[in-house]
Amino acid sequence: MKPFLFLGVRPEDTPADDEYAAMLRCTGLDESTLRRVRLEAAPLGEVDLDAWSGIVLGGGPFCVSDPEDGKSAVQRRVEADLARLLDAVVPADFPFFGACYGIGTLGRHQGAVVDRAHPEPVGAVTVELTAAGRADPVMGAAPARFGAFVGHKEGLSAPPPHAVLLATSATAPVQAFRVGRHVYATQFHPELDADGLETRVEAYRYDGYFDPEEATEVVAAARTSGVRTVPAVLRAFVERHVHPGTDGGRRGPVPRDGSGVSQG
């Protein structure tokens, strides 16, 4: 089979490695079939879509709604790399799944307003699938109502006009949407369990998601929230889009663990 490409944006090694491990568990793939590229480490360069079965974008501390003059050079470069990638992905209806940061990235690319009107504190929420979500071959792998972990400063009030709303919650009206047939984004973290949340709480204790002195309480609330499993949407995404064939041929040197991505 052709591998999937995982794009990470977390600058901190511990949460970055933990996120990748969670993605491996939730997709059912291994390191040879879910190849990681850390976008914060080096320019993405050209992505040969023919080399991949699909692309997964993880979360991170960046917000696309940050004032431009407040963004670091790395954040601006990552956003430009992802915009160029989506310029190719969306017209091709190429399999793509973006989580948390991914919904802001895809939403802005597709014309939605991404702002601070619907933040959610770090913790558990109840996600509800829409009728379209229940019928969707990827999102429908989850129950009609399920618990998931979130933690974000920005969000969408409405999906892009041409997108299909797949899931919502009481505090964030857009928890998931789809563009075309194969391009997905979620506000909730489909890979995150309580252990992973604790890792991120420690890593981002001083990043403004919560009062640093309340970190222990945030973790305790997550562990008693009743969220015990992650929704099966990442595995469903992979199973739907596994593409037979070889790795597709390398097109040059790659940043950290990638293949089929040329260095910029």
Automatic annotation (TrEMBL):
Record field: compositional bias (Low complexity): 255-264
- The record's region (Disordered) falls at 241-264
Q: Which intervals hold domain Glutamine amidotransferase?
A: 49-193
Keyword Metal-binding belongs to the record: no
Q: Could you tell me where the Basic and acidic residues compositional bias lies?
A: 241-250
Recorded hits in Gene3D superfamilies, A to Z, give: 3.40.50.880
Q: Which UniProt keywords apply?
A: Glutamine amidotransferase
Protein name, per record: Glutamine amidotransferase
